[in-house]
Amino acid sequence: MLPSLHRAPGMPPFLIAGPCVIESEALCLEIAEHLKSIGEALGIPMIFKASFDKANRTSVSGFRGHGMDAGLRVLEKVRQETGLPVLTDVHLPHQVSAVAEVVDMLQTPAFLARQTDLIMAAAASGRPVNIKKAQFMAPSDMGPVLGKARAAAQAAGIDKPAIALCERGTSFGYNNLVVDMRSLVIMHELGAPVVFDATHSVQLPGGGGDRSLGQRQFVEPLVCAAMAVGVDGLFMETHPDPDQALSDGPNMVPLDQLQGLLSKIVAISAIG
Among 83, 192, 206, 221, whose CB has the most other CB atoms within 10 angstroms? Predict the structure, then answer.
C-alpha cells in the first residue's frame, strides 16, 4: 500500500529507493527484500524504485535497461513478492497508461519537468506522481508545473491529486550541482509534499566525459540537512555493489550502509 505523501510531525519520511535501472529481476528482488526489512525495523514507509529505461544516458553506449515490457514484468513481480509499492519513470506521454496499470506511483525525470504533455498525462493517470525539478529551474518555477499537473488531474475527475515535487540539485557551473536548502521550503509553500533526492544531488553530470561521476560521500550530510529543514519524503538510489552498477554507481548508497544512514534520519525526524 502506498504511504501518504504528507509526513506527520515527529514521524519518519517515506523513502523511494532502489537501483537506478532494472539490471535483472534477481537484483531487484534482492534489493527490495532488503529495503522491506529496513523499513520494518525502522518504521520507514518504503517505495521500491527502478527504471525500465534510462533515456537520458550521457553516452549511446550506456546501459539503458531491458525495455518497458520486460521492466514492468520485473516491477510487478517485486510488488507481488515483497508487498512493497513500486515506482518507475515515464519519459513519453504514450507510456503512461501502460505503466500506470502496473506501478503504484509515477515519476517524471528532471530533464522533462517542462514537458507539458508528459506532466499532464502522468497527473491524469490517477496514480500519484513525483515530479522532479529540473537542474536548470528555480524552485518557484515549479509552481506552474504543479498547476499543469493539478489541472490535468481535475480534468480527469481526480479531486485531490497526489503530486509531490522533488529537489535533485541545481546546475552550478559545468559538471556540478549544488543544493539550495531554501528550495525545499519554497516548494513546500507551493502546497505540495516535497521529496529530496539525495543521490542525484551529488552527481557530477557528464563529469566523466562519456558518463556522469558522483560524490556519494556527501549523501549523508545533505540528506540530514534536508531532513532538518523538513521534507515529506526522501529518494536514494542504492545497490549492493555501486562500483559495478550499470548506471549512476558513483552517487549510489551502498546497500549495506543504508540502514545506518536511515537510523540517523529517523532520529532527526523525531525532533519535529
Answer: 192
Q: For residue 137, what are the CA distances in angstroms to 16, 61, 121?
A: 22, 28, 21
**Which grid cell is 195?**
521529496
Q: Which residue has the cell 519535529?
A: 272
The answer to whether the beta carbons of residues 54 and 100 sit under 8 Å apart is: no
pLDDT tens digits for range 55-101: 877 778 778 889 999 999 999 999 999 999 999 999 999 999 999 99
Name 46's bridge partners.
15
Task: Give CA 17 to chain center in angstroms.
Answer: 7
Nearest to 81 by CA among 37, 14, 42, 32: 32
Domains along the chain with CATH numbers? 14-269 (3.20.20.70)
- Is this model's pTM higher than 0.85 or not? yes
**Residue 171 near residue 136, CB atoms below 8 Å:** yes
d(CA 168, CA 108) in angstroms, rounded, equals 12
Backbone region of residue 32 per phi and psi (left: phi > 0; alpha: psi in -120 to 50; beta: other values): alpha
